[in-house]
Design goal:
It contains eight helices and 14 strands. The protein is α+β, with helices and mostly antiparallel strands and 339 residues long. It is globular, with a radius of gyration of 22 Å. It starts with 15 loop residues before the first helix and ends in a 10-residue tail after the last strand. Bound molecules: adenosine-5'-diphosphate and magnesium ion. The site of adenosine-5'-diphosphate has 13 residues, from helix 1, strand 4 and strand 5.
């Protein structure tokens, strides 16, 4: 007997299962991911002698991105880039990504947003050979999109880079340039239309940041760094985290900070603010013993020596900025939630 059509279990074309199918169709496995999307759990196979590193990052609409400013592709790219940058900071190799995604009904009904988001996320995932191995999908309780990314990485046992590994006397280095993401965000907020058609192929530090995975892995492999952190919240804030974790003080040399070309057009004050406090550059800040020879570039990324570490002293600031033979106390003024 034919099933009464009224009661036929039709699949809702915009429902959770269709969305998951749409995601699954675009993913693949790897040596590390034995089982991906489709069962109750994914199955990963870590390399013998390695440890797993796990990081999670929220990307919340109106907190981390705005639909008026960010294309779906940029949102997907940025969501994954943040987690990859955390793995980079510890010298890890990414193994698998998991995506928990809550969308308002109106967004789920229009697959264009999801497809664009996946374009950005999966292009970056392919670049670093990290399969999307699972996640969760839900209707958002509000009118906003909420995405949470979990990344699993691996590193040889006992070798991951830490914020807490730096010593007084070590020199301070950073990768790439600083202030570009802050400068681009300023331009983006002033005229979002100009950025509508930007793609990841272009150099866009805010919209399409490049996590420094190869540098982090090289620092670990070549035993170059004593301490490392990624600059996600701004140089001043992330350096303070490293100083606190390592119990050291730091001196930064303003003239040595590598300015992103996009920030060069800002006025002097805004330039310094972008350099010291601008977030989301996703460069690495690392420290090395003064006897360690640090190359000028690692994995094709320029490395700048920007300061040095000292013993912390009572009544002395944790961080000092050297500029034109003057010294200033440097306060962490980067990004902080609930402030
Ligand atoms: P369960 O109810 O057992 O959690 P789901 O129906 O939520 O299962 O998920 C089915 C499969 O689809 C699982 O493998 C899960 O990891 C995957 N999945 C669900 N949502 C997503 C998503 N947003 N991105 C990637 N994989 C997802
Ligand atoms: Mg689920």
């Amino acid at each position: 007997m034919p099933y009464p059509s009224r009661r036929r279990p039709v699949q809702n074309p915009f429902g959770e299962l269709r969305i998951i199918d749409r995601i699954r169709a675009r993913t693949s496995l790897s040596n590390a991911v034995r089982l991906g999307i489709g069962d109750d759990c994914a199955i990963l196979k870590p390399t013998p002698g390695h440890e797993l590193l796990v990081t999670t990052d929220f990307s919340l609409e109106d907190r981390h991105f705005r639909r008026q400013w960010h294309s779906p592709t940029s949102i997907g790219h940025r969501a994954l880039a943040r987690g990859l940058s955390d793995l980079a900071a510890m010298g890890a190799k990414p193994l698998a990504a998991f995506l928990s995604l809550a969308m308002p009904k109106s967004t789920a009904r229009n697959p264009r947003w999801l497809d664009g988001f996946l374009d950005g996320l999966l292009a970056l995932a392919t670049t670093y050979n990290v399969p999307l191995a699972g996640g969760d999908t839900s209707q958002s309780p509000a009118d906003q999109i909420l995405a949470d990314i979990v990344l699993i990485g691996s590193a040889p046992a006992g070798r991951a880079l830490h914020r807490s590994g730096a010593h007084p006397g070590d020199l301070v280095y950073c990768t790439g340039t600083l202030g570009g993401a802050a400068a681009e965000l300023t331009a983006l907020s002033a005229s979002p239309r100009k950025f509508r058609n930007v793609t990841s192929a272009d150099n866009h530090p805010h919209l399409f940041p490049q996590p420094r995975l190869a540098v982090g892995q090289a620092l670990l492999r070549r035993r170059l760094a004593t301490g490392c952190i990624d600059i996600s919240d701004g140089l001043s804030t992330d350096l303070a985290h490293l100083c606190t974790a390592s119990n050291v003080a730091a001196e930064l040399d303003l003239a040595r900070l590598p300015l992103h070309p996009l920030a060069a057009s800002l006025d002097d004050g805004a330039q310094i603010t972008a350099l010291l406090h601008g977030g989301e550059d996703y460069e690495l800040l690392f420290t090395a013993a003064p006897s360690t020879k640090i190359p000028r570039s690692i994995a094709g990324v320029p490395i700048a020596r920007i300061g040095r570490l000292l013993k912390p002293q009572k009544n002395k600031p944790q961080m000092t900025l050297l500029s034109d033979n003057d010294r200033f106390e440097l306060q962490p003024h980067g990004w902080e939630h609930f402030s």
